[in-house]
Amino acid sequence: MGNQDSPDKPLETSAERQRETDEEWSKFLDAAIHDLRAPVRGVATLAQVLQQTKEDRLDEEGQQLLTLIREGATHLDLILKGMSSYSAVVQTPADLKDRVNMNLLLKMITLEMQARIQAADATILYSGLPTVKGDRQALKVLLQNLIDNGLVYRGSNAPGLNISAERTTEDTWKFAVQDNGMGIDPKYQQQIFQPFKRLHGKEFPGVGLGLAISERVVGIHHGRLWVESAIGHGSTFFFTLPVAD
């Protein structure tokens, strides 16, 4: 009996060590992000104070340099905040036991995002969405990111999003989040799911982690996330989720 069990032990030990290493690295990363955000915000605040209180002593070049310092610190703070969100999704085991009514979840999300939606003069349509099996908080993050994507990368018209779902197999729902935005060149449609990958410059806010986080959320639900799009014709993000029992 001992000989039969022995081949498994090194594998189990190796897996346990890897889990411990991953946990230690995650704790270190979280601590580093937390400790870095305070001084970064401090730099931005000090630069702003200098601009406001010493404006009469600074020439145009000095004002521009302080503006660059503030913008750089603010952008770095956004990156650290995004890394924290990504780390949380990667580390936290998903509880896939929830029965999540996607209609109710979207209603809650659109209420929370109401100020942004109204500011963009956007329209978000959905109805008849199913109840799925998954982690409610993780799915909320997924939908928020996809809606936010449609609001940010808008076309010439006011943003319009339509969210729908269809049953594709006995145990799978396929969702579609369709927008009327600027669209994505097919050659970049795989790259946009990579962390920190952005196709546009400073004219659009963000650090390029929203879609990477979304793909991770779908992955922990044993699903798939992809996009179909063309320049000037909007984008449709598809993702699959398990049917509720």
Features:
five-stranded mixed β-sheet, 7 helices, alpha+beta, 245 residues, 7 strands, globular, 52% helix, two-stranded antiparallel sheet
Characterise the protein shown here.
The protein is an alpha+beta fold. It contains seven helices and seven strands; from the N terminus they run αααβααββαββαββ. Strand 6 and strand 7 form a beta hairpin. Helix 2 packs antiparallel against helix 3, helix 3 runs parallel beside helix 7 and helix 6 runs antiparallel to helix 7. The protein is globular and about 70 Å long. The two termini are 40 Å apart. The model has no long low-confidence stretch (mean pLDDT 81).
Helix segment count? Answer: 7
- Taking all Cα atoms into account, the compactness measure Rg is 22 Å
Q: Can you count the beta strands?
A: 7
State the share of residues found in helices, binned by percent.
40-55%
Largest sheet: spatial strand order: 2-4-5-7-6
Element string (H = helix, E = strand) = HHHEHHEEHEEHEE
Global shape:
globular
- Roughly what is the average pLDDT, rounded to an integer? 81
Q: Pick out the low-confidence regions.
A: none
* Residue fraction in strands: 15-25%
Structural class: alpha+beta
